[in-house]
Amino acid sequence: MSTWRPIPPPPFWKRWLPEWLHGPVRALFFTAVCGAVVFSGIAFFYFSLAMRYDLKEVARLPTGTTFLDRKGVELAAPGASGRKLVTRAEIPDFLVKSLQAREDARFFQHSGVDIRGFSRATLRNLKDRKFTQGASTLTMQLAKNTFDNKDKSIHRKLLEVALALRIEARYSKDEILTHYLNRIYFGAGAYGIEQAARTYFGKTTRDLTDGECAIIVGIIRGPHAFSPIRNPEKALNQRGQTLNRMIAMGFIDKARREAIAAEPLRLVDEDQRETQTSYALQAIRRELDNILDDSELQTAGLQVHTTLDAAWQQRLETELNHAVEALENEKSWPHPKLASHLPGEKPAYVLFAAITTEIKTGATLALIGGRNYGHSRVDCTRSTRDLGSAFEPFVAAAAAERGKLVLPGKPVQTGRQIGPAEVERIARRCGLDGPFLQTEDLFRGAVAATPQEMSVGLATLGNQGKRPKPFLIREIRTASGEVIYQARPQITQAVSQSAALDATSVLSRRKGTRVFTGATGSERDAWTLRLGPSGATAIWIGFDKPTAIAPERRLKSLLDEFVERLGND
After folding, report:
1. Strands (DSSP E) along 114-228, which ranges?
2. Nearest-CA neighbor of 186 among 207, 202, 206, 200?
3. Alpha carbons 157 and 538: distance in angstroms, whole number
4. CA distance 312 to 536
């Protein structure tokens, strides 16, 4: 006997929807369920991954960049003494509003992730099939900088989102903003807002004007490109863009914008910048800025392995100081002494600069840009000075390259065989930029060059005519030891091997080295060229303004004594 059972009514959605929509709705429902499961799995995975990170790191002073010489000896880090964490109370409200307007308009409303911006960027990335849009909030940028998350990938971005949500749960908005400003890179070797304020404007963060606040915020998107030291016009343009965003958000009106935009750019004097500690590190920082992009420069704990030989540099600088002090202590010395000057005063005492280039590779072994970094930060290895008789090796190289006879000690007779144009051509090939006279005075040394150009030119002659490109950084590693840059020596043939050999014959032989010592005819510039087994050293002595130093005979005697004390490599 069969039992009758009533047929249950169809689900309510089937009663309300046409039959032809039943299939699509069912598929959409199952897709949504599967999507929710997948989303939950992904969320669980990334939050589990994010839990491995210690959020106490967010509030700590970031690890600075370490500079090492070629033997692993640590060099003093630029700006280490100026590194300081600021509190929220020390940050001007105008700077906060500038930052919000330029970098994260909804910072005080979102919970670490701007859903609208993130969704828009994700769709764009999927469309482009590559990571082109970031949509990072300040919190996400803080996570990226704290935990060295620099890769542009979906995986790293999702981890950044999870870390940002954890940071928002742990810290207040004011704390997040303060930690962000204390950590990021502002260019010119300045890490953190306090060091940036002192480096660019010579004042504390608390004392920044509204215009200076807008400039510093404008730097963030391109610390290298928008640095007011390197590109003042671009920095002012970024200030204008920041102020325009503040108008759009209602933080200021047009009249206030015009008043701020009228503020002149007043940068601190180079002598007072906090991110430099020596001529060598100043030069290393310049090279580092050219090697790495802005995102890489923000990486905490970089290890920069330089080409410098700290022991050789110390030896060279000590002997140079000894030689110049001996000259100053003579009774007949008519000029001021270094000891009579206070820090910050313009130098009127005798100066020196020296640079050693490794002959085979172009690596810089020593760089002494001046006599006292505390008195003047002008790097004299990059300053053009008259050469006088120190130009003779390049006259000789030009003559030998043309198959002419080299007459040591007679540069005019040597040069007359080929003419000024040919001498200029060879000198340029060896690394000297001139300008060059087109008369016989060129053979007498009526030409100027920097100590660095002379060091490279001398290395070229000592390297069988092969000119090395100078460099200061041989390798860069992250805090985890990953190599992100490695230098490759660049060598070009400038003159023939025989011409280079003949050119060095005009230098005196001394204890396994080839040496020139002498002064210009005006006695305003003294030079020592020293070609050793492994390094080519160019040394200049003189004043920042044209002034006779001492009689040429005394200068030559002094430099000869210096070379004797310096000895061999």
Report:
1. none
2. 200
3. 51
4. 12
Cα gap 301→284, rounded to integer Å: 16
Whole-number Å distance between alpha carbons of 125 and 565:
65
Tokens of 302: 């970089």
Q: Environment class of residue 6 by beta-carbon count within 10 Å: exposed (0-12), middle (13-18) or buried (19+)? A: exposed
Taking residues 96-124, report their average pLDDT: 83
Rounded (5°) CA angle 70-74-77: 120
In whole numbers, what is the pLDDT of the chain averaged over residues?
Answer: 86
pLDDT digits 0-9 by tens, 349-404 = 889 999 999 999 999 999 999 998 877 888 999 999 999 999 999 999 999 999 99
Which parts of 409-529 fold into alpha helices (H)? 411-416, 420-429, 451-462, 497-503
Residue 539 burial (CB < 10 Å; 0-12/13-18/19+)?
A: buried
**Torsions phi, psi of 131, nearest 5?**
-85, 95
Instruction: Give 66's pLDDT tier (boundaries 50, 70, 90).
Output: confident
CA distance 262 to 79: 31
Rounded to an integer, the average pLDDT of 85-93 is 94
pTM for the whole structure: 0.79
* Domains defined for the chain, CATH in brackets: 81-276 (1.10.3810.10), 312-566 (3.40.710.10)
Q: Tell me the three state secondary structure of residue 569.
A: coil
- How many Cα atoms occupy the beta-carbon half-sphere of 148 within 13 Å? 15
Look at residue 200 in the predicted model and tell me its pLDDT. Answer: 93
Please name the residues in contact with 410: beta carbons below 8 A apart, sequence gap of 6 or more. none
Look up residue 487 and give its DSSP letter.
Answer: -
DSSP bridge partners of 484: none
DSSP symbols for 317-339 = HHHHHHHHHHHHTSTT--S--GG
- Euclidean distance between CA atoms 264 and 282, whole angstroms: 27
Residue 311 has pLDDT above 70, yes or no: yes
**Residue for token digits 């590779």?**
361
Q: Which residue spans within 411-559 are E strands per DSSP?
A: 448-449, 466-468, 473-477, 483-486, 491-493, 508-510, 513-519, 525-531, 535-542
C-alpha span between 554 and 547 (Å, rounded): 16
Instruction: Please list, in sequence order, all residues whose beta carbon lies within 8 angstroms of the beta carbon of residue 371, skipping any fewer than 6 positions away.
Output: 321, 324, 338, 347, 349, 350, 351, 352
Residue 339 has pLDDT above 60, yes or no: yes
DSSP state of 382: G
Identify the bridge partners of residue 525 per DSSP, sorted by sequence position.
Answer: 542
Q: What whole-number distance in Å separates Cα of residue 53 and Cα of residue 265?
A: 42
Model confidence band, residue 205 (pLDDT cutoffs 50, 70, 90): very high
What pLDDT is recorded for position 225? Answer: 86
